[in-house]
Amino acid sequence: xxxxxxxxxxxxxxxxxxxxxxxxxxxxxxxxxxxxxxxxxxxxxxxxxxxxxxxxxxxxxxxxxxxxxxxxxxxxxxxxxxxxxxxxxxxxxxxxxxxxxxxxxxxxxxxxxxxxxxxxxxxxxxxxxxxxxxxxxxxxxxxxxxxxxxxxxxxxxxxxxxxxxxxxxxxxxxxxxxxxxxxxxxxxxxxxxxxxxxxxxxxxxxxxxxxxxxxxxxxxxxxxxxxxxxxxxxxxxxxxxxxxxxxxxxxxxxxxxxxxxxxxxxxxxxxxxxxxxxxx
Length: 280
Hints:
By secondary structure, the protein is mainly α.
């Protein structure tokens, strides 16, 4: 009897694990659909998930409603972007305002999570700069360093990689408008993307499936979120890898701050290289 009971418990545990990964996979599907503006299919998938919630655990219900909130928030963001385009502002200002629209899915998701009496993020606190992180697998690897040293190494590697693409013509540092664009775009985009992806999404994934699965799938989602900007799948793969390390740094340090600083620096390099264009 005891062995049969243990067997049943093992089977149930495996089924639960499978369901968790199915939900994470569906999130990836939803990301691809929303980035390609396939909202009818997106909400069909979400409707199926709502029906599934009737027999699901509380953690699953929080996750599903958070994904619904993200999809609705992203849809409103797209309409907001259309309204912004009609404003009599230069393109650079419109780009910054567009990034500010990330507040919409952030607010939608935070509101839903609050309704379930859950913390919207585990990582709004001071970082542990001496916490250890390994390369290349975050928890394991051939080299382990502190978060502080890891960031310094990441800055150096990012700078070296971008050097061939940084043009002097893109570095009009005497133009106040250019400097303001670099600062405000990098701050707004860096902070809001980290709040959304490492603050809210990563937390929900950790609660659903654990830290390692959360790091992987939140990174993939972050990469896919750049499809809407016209980046190729190959480039989005690069963003996904970056998202995995942003998530790893966040979890290991226990804070959003290291990833925000890294993201800010990376945005500056993208502007200087022309990958994010400055159009005054």
